[in-house]
Amino acid sequence: MIAIIDYDAGNLKSVEKALASLGYESVITRDRQEILRADKVILPGVGAFGDAMHQLKKYEMDKVVKEVAAENKPLLGICLGLQLLFEGSEESEGVEGLGLLKGSIVRFSDEHGLKIPHIGWNSLDLKNNGRLFRGISDGAYVYFVHSYYLRAQESEIVKATTTYGDLVDASVEKDSIFACQFHPEKSSTVGLSILKNFAELDTQEGA
Q1: Which of 14, 33, 63, 176 is the 20 to 30 A CA-CA neighbour of 72?
Q2: 183 is catalytic
Q3: Could you confirm whether 79 is annotated as catalytic?
Q4: Cβ partners under 8 Å of residue 171, min gap 6
Q5: Which of the following is catalytic: 87, 90, 185, 200?
């Protein structure tokens, strides 16, 4: 069973539908025990960093996410869910993130003359043998919707990058924590392969 955390700030139904199309059972929930009983957990997210952290705390899901990480249970952050795993964001100065990973969430530079938010398909430059990308070719295209992006502090946790004027750390992996700035649930067959790789992770392998 895969738990999808519900904190009124996520792209929940699309993730649930994508997992169902792959044959995996999932549940959208904010019940602590149900989340902790799950084999794997997904933290989706759309919207503003500060609002999302407020919602996580309102439902005490911030504590639950940290419990999941402490148990070395595979955890996948998607889009804003990736950003929340870090310490903070330029979008919401003074608001602390979950702090499970180290890095900066910064706004795209205006100097490149590109439209912000970044909306559309971009190719990935794969690196460091990410487990989410097994069987996926370098240069595969995925779907992004975001105005802020990650600069990871630890280069070794970065498993994919893309370029949209600025160099974007598009996916990270550290121990049992995985995250994608893009939306695998909206990224056609490549995205479904990424979700399948996550769903099939051996729990001990994620530890």
Answers
A1: 14
A2: yes
A3: yes
A4: 124, 130, 132, 133, 158, 159, 160, 178, 179, 180, 181, 182
A5: 185
**Active site residue: 79, 118, 146, 173, which one?**
79
* 180 included as an active-site residue: no
Q: Which residue has the tokens 């550290």?
A: 174
Residue-level pLDDT at 103: 95
Specify whether the CB–CB gap between 108 and 118 falls below 8 A: yes
Q: Mean pLDDT of residues grouped by 10 in the chain (207 residues)?
A: 93 94 97 97 95 96 98 97 97 96 94 90 97 97 96 97 95 98 97 98 58
Annotated catalytic residue within 16, 146, 180, 183: 183
pTM higher than 0.90, yes or no? yes
- Domains, the chain, in order of start with CATH, read 2-199 (3.40.50.880)
- Please spell the DSSP secondary structure of 111-180, one letter per residue: GG---SSEEEEEE-EE-TT-GGGTT--TT-EEEEEESEEEEES-GGGEEEEEEESEEEEEEEEETTEEEE
CB contact at 8 A, 30 and 61: yes
**H helix count then E strand count, the chain:** 6, 12
Q: What is the pLDDT of residue 203?
A: 53
* Cβ atoms of 150 and 182 closer than 8 Å: no
> Bridge partners of 89?
105
